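Interim report, section 4.2 (structural modelling).
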Amino acid sequence: MSTAPTTAQGTQKLTPELKAFIAEWKEKPGNLVMILHHVQQHFGYIPREVAFEVADLIDVPLAKIYGVITFYNFFKLKKPGRNQIQVCMGTACYLKGGEDIIAELEGILGVGVNTVTPDGEFSVEAVRCLGCCGLAPVMVINGEVFGKVKTESLQGIIAKFRNA
Amino acid sequence: MSYKQYILVCGGTACDSIRGMELFNALKTAVKENGLINEVQVVRTGCLGFCEKGPIVKVLPQDTFYVEVKPEDAEEIIKEHIIKGREVSRLLYDKEQSKIHVAIEGIDFYQKQFRVVLRNCGAIDPNVIDEYIARDGYKALEKALFDMTPQDVIDEISKSGLRGRGGAGFPTGKKWSFAAAQPAGQKYMVCNADEGDPGAYMDRSTLEGDPHSVLEAMTIGGYAIGADKGFIYIRAEYPLAIKRLENALKQAREYGLLGNDILGSGFSFDIEIRLGAGAFVCGEETALLASIEGNRGMPRPRPPFPAVKGLWGRPTVINNVETLANIPVILLKGADWFNKIGTATSKGTKVFALTGKINNSGLIEVPMGTTLREIIFDIGGGIRGGKAFKAAQTGGPSGGIIPPQFLDTPIDYENLAKIGSIMGSGGLIVMDEDDCIPNIAKFYLDFTVDESCGKCAPCRIGGRKLLNYLDKICDGKGTHEDIENMREISEAMSRASLCGLGQTASNPVQSSLRYFMDEYKEHIDDKRCRAGKCKNLLRYTIDKTKCVGCTACARVCPANAIAGERKQPHAINNETCIKCGQCYEICKFHAITRE
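Predicted structure of the assembly:
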């Protein structure tokens, strides 16, 4: 996912590539959502100081950017863990025990949903239908899909990513 | 160039995620190593539909259908099947363990299906425009541009009886004619690919497996209404579909099928991709437009309808992916061919994502009018684990919960509305005896409350109230007065909400109150959940005659709620029990009962 350097929060800056993308989209109507997608793709979230820069570059108030970020589930204001775990909460996964997967993960990692472990290694999110309902229950770690997940196998999967 | 044999590997998201890509590469390597590169072509196609048994491999011309194929099997398929002509029997799909060859048409999962929308899914490589063209791709566009006037196109679509597949079922021809009737000027054609229904992935599979069909249809639509610009609004959660669309757009431009002066006709049209960002309400037309405009995706009152005032105030037609995928076929085969499929009011086919407690989950396409029984038992192979069928749910959070007595109702727009559900986009979720209906209603309400944009009070407040009542009932604290209040609020929400989300959000509640009142009553009166899903209503007890005192339950209990001497019967303290069920799982002597 994100390849951004792990500098401390508060010092993130738009990269030249992101600036070029914004310049390209500056005059296109309805550019804000697309720009935020690119920013998040790079940093893994939308850092506040970067949002300031975006506001300046495309000349929209920071309040509007904040409004858009918080409206959509996809955008994050906080830096996620090095390993991002997404557990599908679509109907098929819910029926087949998606909630148990979350409960088990919370137990293993010691943090609740939408929080990052203190060491910054993992974050767990309950997400909307990922569209692989044939494989329910489904979990995604750093883009890798795990289908027909069993709670017993979670410990092993987590260990693999912890040491990677 | 033609090959003697073709190996089709499913490249849909589900198969991909269980090493489908690795399998594709392994097959390619094996073909190369065995010197067959000029005789055998390995193709990565779109979704073949049978996700349950993925990854799927199909070998042509023998039409051999292999299921659950692993990359390690590649070598054997090449050595045995391709070279020696002997099918690898252990990989064949076999229902009766007979391991004999079954052609794809012979497989029960495919027998009652009829593929119009998914005509190319699983048959072509979606990354190669020539394969789409070889199967009559872009011929409909050529026909529209050179042999038909825009009005002819609209008339043909109207005559076909095609209705919107996104949910409400509005006649597509009519929608187009409204936009076409607006004075000439900037108009837009928008494809709604913001498939947000949990448990639905029809549009994703269509875009991944046959992206050009949607591009072709949008261009035809642009010609019909007089638009020169199109947008595809697609979920950011669908990276593979986005990648294939981007590639398809590039190829179509290179071939002069998009851009200025398409095929020398003088008509110009181009398409841009815009990403959604995870907001269910953006499936609603006006909210979707607000999102493309870069704003919070909140709906606005209609009229004016988007066909009159849409994107940036200009006339805009918004069609769903599946609706669009029908268009090229209708123009090529004719409205009269299309309107013979289906029922009196609902023409054509419908794609469903069949999921839940079913044996064969996957992507299916059936003629309108097929019954739920045919879908669930013939195509879906019945309920998993031989359990009893309890309900089917269509239309996602906006739809209703359908009880067994309607299994034989032919599915079309009107019939589903009559029994309190909607067609919706095509999620079809099957529930068995282990599912608790009030709990499912709560699941859907939880979703719609979270997704409500908050603009109008009926949806914002009503949804929250409904959820509170459902929480109470599932906790065993509900009353009969709560049920009456839920009925009243549901009614108010469906009448007074601003957009489709709020108007339909109470459907799971209304339909479940109608058909599964006995379950609500049990939760309220008997404080009992027959499915064992509502944790606060569960009671675990140890049968003293069966307990041997092995202490396994006491050791696993995280709340220290189980006490007893070694080799003596144990007992559970229900005051401290947190109802996690671990003791129930671990007991080897079936001494623990849950009720």
